[in-house]
Each structure stands twice: as structure tokens, then as C-alpha cells.
Amino acid sequence: MTRSVDEWLERDAQLLWHPYSSLSEPAPVRLVRGASGVRLQLSDGVEAIDAMSSWWSVIHGYRHPVLDAALKSQADDFSHVMFGGLTHEPAIRLAERLVEITPEPLQHVFFCDSGSVSVEVAIKLALQYQVSRGHVGRTRMLTVRGGYHGDTFAPMSVCDPVNGMHSLFTGALQEQVFGPQPPAGFDRSADDPELQAWAATMAAVAAENAGSVAAIVVEPILQGAGGMYAYSPACLRVLRSLADEHGFLLILDEIATGFGRTGALFASEHAGVDPDIMCVGKALTGGYLTLAAMLCTAEVAQAVSNGPGGALMHGPTFMANPLACAVALASIDLLLSQDWAARVSQISAGLTAGLAPAAELPGVKDVRVLGAVGVVQLAGPVDMVRMTDAVLRRGVWVRPFRDLVYTMPPYVCTDAEIATIASAITDAVREVC
């Protein structure tokens, strides 16, 4: 059926629910006709640099020949088989690679459909672990304010309960234990007074709730959808120490921060901290297909396997999808075959220089950069529609939210493209604010 662009968009508005959107007052959407490299081709002829990496996942850009080839090769063999009672080479190879590149204690892999589901599985694993150790009363998670871990029920419960996106579900969610948000600033030292005060408060919260907490759950170093908020690696070391002291597991949600985004392959490396459980997703497949993974230590895996039930009680239909595993393995190999750290450092330098003028603009509260993440924080809520339009007129696609205009560009952006992204954001903020 041949339809005009307006007809397609009209049918979209009639039928489709977009993320965090209203059907009665939907936000504008744009029809994508194609994508290649780091650019989106829209139906109105506009071509724009995707400064979001399609929600932080398309690190190698679109239509990358290596990833295309991996996907097509696997499709020629088979696209999917159930993972109950069957296995396949792409899953085994990907598990080997993940164990190889993640912190050494992590030895076992559970594949999931999405990042949110991987956090669900991590929480279930932590609860089963405590039961297997005889701590049946340890049914809650300890976390910090400002976090975001996904939109399904267990992850929602460890998102910020006040300023997060899930306050409507208060009362329906498991009540978790929340400590204060770590003090802002990646470069804060361990002896910083604010950091020490935060550490003392967290110690008190942990001690008070030691009998009911199964695990600590946090995004390491950078809180993503909760506010693009960076904190010191020293805070992560505090949490590791508290977990060890009280017998909690430490779950690190590396879904947004993994695969180089913060300048380390995994953000926990900034702190020299090894988790008991780690979740990865988003950039895992280079943005080609949905896939996530939960990794855990041998000690955790054995405790659960030998405990009540004798198994981890989870099993998605599309677990370890061969197409997704094949393209994920190709994406990791592609990333590690190049000097990704130098490229992320170059992006960081380009964003730092390009966004610096925004700090002087009226209505801007803060400008910050960590790795390949650039953020302009406004003094009030962003007008998403106006800001998106203003940036797009300058040839760049962004998706502002709350009080933030930010970018997480593909690593394959050139220096010139990074400069274009930064100037487009700066000029748009100047125009709108």
C-alpha cells in the first residue's frame, strides 16, 4: 500500500503507543526512511546525525558491514531455537567472550531479552542466594536515590521513588531501602568531606537494615536515565565495602555504562571494584537486536544451584536468540579490535570543548562530560518539542528529557561530527532558553 508521509504518521497516532507518551496528546514523531553510518534519513528529506546512538546502543553506527554480515550469516543457519534443553555456538562463544572481558570473578552468564529483564533476573538471583544461605528475611534491595534500572516491576522498585519516572506505582512496588544520592563529581577524592558524610550515612542505613537487605543495586559511576549524573569511583568502593561487611551481594547495572561509554570498558573499572552480579545490555549488540546478559560469580551460582529449587527460576522464550548472540559477538570483536579508549577520549575532548560555551548561557545550570557522554543541564524543565526541533534544524537528532539536553554519540563519529553535535546543542539551547 502506497501512503503519503502524513498518512503514515496519522496511522501511527491512531495505533501506536510510543515510550512515555500519551495517546490523547501524543508528542510529535518523525518517520525514518533509512539510516547509515551515524545518520538518520527522515521522510521529509532531512538527514541528521544520531547523537543518541538510538538510546545509547548503536555504538558502531548503522548498517555496519561487519555486523550486517554476522546477522546474515547466522540467519542462513537458523534464526532461533529454544534455549531449554538446546544450545548453540553463538551463545557459547558470546558467553566465553563476556566472561573474558568482564571482571575476573564473573564466571557464569544468563542471557535475557532486555536490560530491564536482566535487572529482574539479577534481583531474583540475589533473593534466591540469600534464601540458600538461610537468610529468608533478606528480601529487599539497598540502593541510592537518583537511579534508574528499567521499567518492569522489580527494576522500577529500585528506581528513584520520588524524582524518577515510576512514582505513580508507589504502593504497588516492593518497598526497597534507599540511601542518599552520592555527591556529584567524578573527580571527588575519598577524603572529600561531602563524600565522607555520604559514606557515613550509607553505613548507617546499611547497618540499620542489615537483616532485611539481600543486595546493593547501583549504576556504577554514571546514573543514566535518572539524570545523567556522575559520581566518584570512591563511592563505589564504599558500597563494595558495605556489601562485604554485611553479607549483601553487589549488583552493578552496566547496561548504559558498559562497552566503553564512560572511558573504561566497564564503569566499575574506574573504581577497581568487582561486583557479585553484573548486568549488561544496550550496546551489547551494537543496537541491532535486543539482548542483555546477567553475569555472576561462581560462588553465587553454586549457592543458588545447591539451594531450594536447585535452579535460577527464570526462562525467557527468546533467551540467547542466535541472531542476537551472533551480532553481539561481532560487535564486541569490532569494538576490541580498535583503540576504542582513544576514540572515546577524543569524543570526550570534543564534547568538552564544544559544549563549554553553553555553560555561559542564560538558563543553563551545568555542563558536564564523562567519556562519550555530554550533558547540558538546564535551570528548569526542557521544552522537549521546541528543543528537539531546534537541534534537528541544525542537522542533529537528540531526545531531551527532564531538564537535560544530552548526547551519547556513536563512537564512529568523526571529530567534525562531534563538533557539529556540540554546536547544534549549544546553539539550540541559546535559541530556546
UniProtKB/TrEMBL annotation:
Its EC number is 2.6.1.62. Its main location: cytoplasm. The modification N6-(pyridoxal phosphate)lysine is found at residue 282. It comes from Kribbella antibiotica. Pathway: Cofactor biosynthesis; biotin biosynthesis; 7,8-diaminononanoate from 8-amino-7-oxononanoate (SAM route): step 1/1. It catalyses: (8S)-8-amino-7-oxononanoate + S-adenosyl-L-methionine = S-adenosyl-4-methylsulfanyl-2-oxobutanoate + (7R,8S)-7,8-diammoniononanoate. Substrate binds at residues 55, 148, 282, 315, 399. Its cofactor is pyridoxal 5'-phosphate. Catalyzes the transfer of the alpha-amino group from S-adenosyl-L-methionine (SAM) to 7-keto-8-aminopelargonic acid (KAPA) to form 7,8-diaminopelargonic acid (DAPA). It is the only aminotransferase known to utilize SAM as an amino donor. It holds the Pfam family Aminotran_3. This is Adenosylmethionine-8-amino-7-oxononanoate aminotransferase. The record marks 20 as: Participates in the substrate recognition with KAPA and in a stacking interaction with the adenine ring of SAM. Belongs to the class-III pyridoxal-phosphate-dependent aminotransferase family. BioA subfamily. The gene is bioA. It is found in: Cytoplasm.
